[in-house]
Design brief:
Layout (H helix, E strand, L loop, with lengths): L34 H13 L6 H14 L3 E5 L2 H12 L5 E5 L5 H8 L3 E5 L10 H6 L5 E7 L8 H11 L2 E5 L7 E2 L2 E2 L6 E5 L12 E5 L2 H11 L3 E3 L2 E2 L10 H11 L2 H19 L5 E2 L7 E2 L5 E5 L8 H10 L19 H11 L5 H9 E4 L7 H18 L2
Length: about 400
């Protein structure tokens, strides 16, 4: 029997000793590198030009063009991309609206830049930043909004931009998970003051490590370029204090090679997401993210949420049961940012100023969301089996 052939499931859950839906698990993600990517890296190694050079420059040009931005600046990873954007646009002491429901780097790099993150709750249906809650937290010290296109799903950009215009705020979009996502037919690089990306190994465009900042303002691009490389414009002449946050050409070459396939791989993810949508819509007690008109996700992760009132189990027990059926899952993320120990002092200060310590929706998402397998090689058989496992477990645990 081939490893990918589904088993004949029994009515009993596999976690209780029954037959699983799959004899071998669905792959949660797929290794990213193909032979041509290895050859691209090898060519740089053979050339001896390992530092940031022509392949990084090529990736900057191609990626910024495909995302709708004027300038792209490669850097060492997605976290340094955020730090470069924040460092060029913000000043120490600035208050910045930031989602309570996102990866920690979106907020931690604000702290590293001397800014104060003001945590904003999430929309319960889209998982993205709640703009109504954001508006309530604006003070005279608020200088920017830093919001995430979470899970590969663009935030409601028009609303963000309108809020920013009304209050004179800068906008930084964290698109670490949203390569090639679009908003109303436009690339994400067209919006805001800066957009940051991660090329970590598991991202849709994974190079191992690496990142990029895209901007549309010439002076800002110049400032970020200086900040990225010790403030150096001419050799050993430093106009400002900066960092060494450069990418290298090995990474750049892998990025260029993988970028050749990224549009097709993104389309495959979108096809898998549509199949998931149909499955989830038929299962009471499990919800999928709301996708507003004009939003075309890149589907880095496909994240659903369990209604704890619909089942006799917790989210973690539900995930353990479908894992036993051959369907791995992951939780992104197990804590809201306001529950992270690193932010305890900031949360206490925010609570004193705004009257609430923990945005409730973000906290609830931390206990109810889980991610299903998502990658460009998911077959129809894979998603059919995942659907069968979800239905089986949901039926067994339904109240």
């Amino acid at each position: 029997m081939p490893a990918t052939t589904p088993a004949t499931p029994s009515a009993s859950l596999a976690v209780d000793g029954g037959n699983p839906v799959r004899t071998a698990p669905v792959a949660f993600m797929k290794p990213q590198l193909e032979p041509q990517d290895v050859e691209a890296a090898h060519a740089v190694l053979k050339s001896g030009m390992l530092r940031a050079a022509s392949r990084c420059a090529e990736l900057e040009t191609r990626f910024s063009e495909i995302t709708g931005a004027k300038h792209g600046l490669t850097c060492s990873n997605g976290t340094t991309a955020l730090q470069l954007a924040y460092g060029a646009l913000l000043e120490p002491g600035d208050e910045v609206l930031v989602p309570a429901w996102t990866y920690i780097a979106t907020a931690s790099m604000l702290v590293a830049s001397g800014c104060r993150p003001i945590f904003v709750d999430a929309d319960p249906e889209s998982y993205q930043i709640d703009l109504a809650d954001a508006a309530k937290r604006i003070t005279p010290n608020t200088k920017a909004i830093a919001c995430t296109h979470l899970y590969g799903i663009p935030v409601e950009v028009d609303g963000v931009q309108a809020l920013a215009r009304e209050h004179g705020l800068k906008v930084i979009y964290d698109a670490a998970q949203s390569h090639l996502a679009t908003y109303k037919g436009r690339g994400l690089g067209e919006f805001g003051d800066a957009v940051t990306y991660s090329f970590y190994a598991t991202k849709n465009l994974g190079t191992g490590e690496g990142g990029m900042v895209t901007v549309n303002d010439d002076a800002l691009a110049d400032k970020i370029g200086l900040l990225r490389s010790h403030g150096e414009r001419d050799k050993y002449i430093h106009e400002s204090v900066g960092f060494n946050y450069r990418m290298n050409d090995i990474t750049g070459a892998i990025g260029c090679s993988r970028l050749d396939r990224l549009p097709q791989e993104t389309d495959a993810r979108r096809g898998a997401a549509k199949r998931y949508d149909a499955i989830i819509d038929e299962i009471d007690g499990i919800g999928r993210p709301r996708i507003d008109d004009g939003i075309e996700p890149a589907w880095h992760l496909y994240t659903v949420r369990i209604d704890p009132d619909a089942f006799t189990c917790t989210r973690d027990e539900f995930c353990a049961a479908i894992k036993a059926e051959g369907v791995p899952t992951a939780v992104h993320y197990p804590l809201s940012l306001t529950d992270q120990p690193a932010f305890a002092e900031i949360v206490a200060r925010n609570a004193a100023d705004f009257g609430d310590a923990h945005p409730p929706v973000a906290r609830r998402l931390a206990k109810t969301v889980f991610c299903l397998p998502m990658h460009h090689a998911l077959s129809e058989q894979d998603t059919d089996d995942i659907g069968e496992a979800l239905r089986k477990v949901a039926s067994a645990y339904r109240r």
